[in-house]
């Protein structure tokens, strides 16, 4: 049986068939020497391939150390110092860290809608099924209430004006001696039309929200109330004396 190596050798030999010896023993010796040379050549090629892989590995390590990121650069001398200290103590080296893929990832903060503050007033609106819709469409059995789905919607209620009628009750003596009238609380503006809440709103809008007075006049005019906030006609907010004790105070 002729091996594949021998066939490859015969195909690549430059010696012509007439030059081969005719003695079978000589041919056998020549074949054995050729196979030994082929095995030695293959072993040498494997050794050179192993050496080439080592050189490639060293080159990759050097390039990573020279041009890699800073957190990947490791000083070999520092590693040797740690290894020598562990060996002198007789301790076992620490286990290799688990790859990052196997470590549980921390939940990132969501980017969804934030919940509305609990300090806001909640006005509950219930949407219920009609009486005719409370039956099962398959078996016509009366449906049973199992819960509800609650969703929140932020709504804005425009500012509204209202009139406070201050009725001071009057009492008179049956004998005609005297008449007594109940005293109303002190107003921020003497005999003025605006109340404390209106004055506070105008002041915050002008100095806090930078809303000019003439624009506030237009806002009040859309609600059917004409106020002269810029002066000239009562109730003017300029040149009047306010009573701080009559202004509303914030709790706390």
Describe this structure in words.
The protein has about 250 residues and is mostly helical. It contains 5 helices and 2 strands, in the order αααββαα. The protein has helices at about 5-10, 25-65, 75-90, 195-210, 215-220, and strands spanning about 170, 180. A two-stranded antiparallel ribbon has the order 1-2. β1 and β2 (about 180) form a beta hairpin. The protein is elongated. The N and C termini lie far apart (about 110 Å).
Short description:
The chain is an all-alpha fold and 252 residues long. It is built from 5 helices and 2 strands. The longest helix is centred in the first third of the chain and has 44 residues, at 24-67.
Indicate the percent of residues in helices: 25-40%
What global shape is seen? elongated
The unreliable regions are: 232-244
Residue-averaged pLDDT? 76
Total of DSSP H or I helical runs spanning 4+ residues: 5
* Beta-strand content bin: under 5%
* Largest sheet: spatial strand order: 1-2
Structural class: mainly alpha
Main sheet characteristics: 2 strands, antiparallel
Q: Report, as a whole number of angstroms, the end-to-end distance.
A: 108 Å
What string gives the helices and strands in order?
A: HHHEEHH
The count of strands amounts to 2
Gyration radius (Cα, Å) is 50 Å
């Amino acid at each position: 049986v002729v091996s594949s190596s021998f066939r490859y050798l015969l195909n690549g030999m430059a010696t012509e068939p007439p030059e081969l010896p005719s003695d079978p023993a000589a041919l056998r010796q020549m074949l054995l020497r050729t196979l030994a040379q082929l095995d030695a050549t293959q072993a040498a090629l494997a050794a050179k391939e192993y050496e080439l892989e080592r050189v490639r590995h060293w080159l990759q390590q050097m390039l990573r150390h020279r041009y890699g990121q800073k957190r990947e650069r490791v000083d070999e001398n520092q590693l040797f110092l740690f290894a020598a200290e562990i060996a002198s103590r007789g301790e076992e080296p620490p286990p290799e860290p688990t790859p990052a893929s196997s470590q549980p990832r921390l939940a990132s903060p969501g980017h969804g809608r934030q919940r509305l503050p609990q300090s806001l007033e909640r006005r509950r609106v219930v949407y219920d099924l009609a009486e005719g819709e409370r039956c099962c469409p398959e078996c016509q059995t009366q449906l049973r209430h199992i819960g509800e789905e609650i969703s929140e919607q932020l709504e804005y209620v425009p500012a509204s004006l209202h009139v406070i009628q201050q009725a001071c009750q009057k009492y008179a003596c049956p004998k005609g001696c005297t008449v007594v009238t109940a005293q109303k609380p002190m107003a921020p503006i003497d005999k003025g039309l605006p109340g404390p809440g209106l004055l506070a709103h105008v002041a915050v809008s002008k100095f806090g929200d930078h809303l000019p007075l003439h624009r506030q006049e237009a806002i009040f005019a859309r609600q059917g109330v004409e106020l002269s906030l810029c002066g000239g006609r009562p109730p003017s907010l300029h040149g009047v004396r306010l009573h701080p004790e009559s202004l509303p105070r914030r709790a706390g």
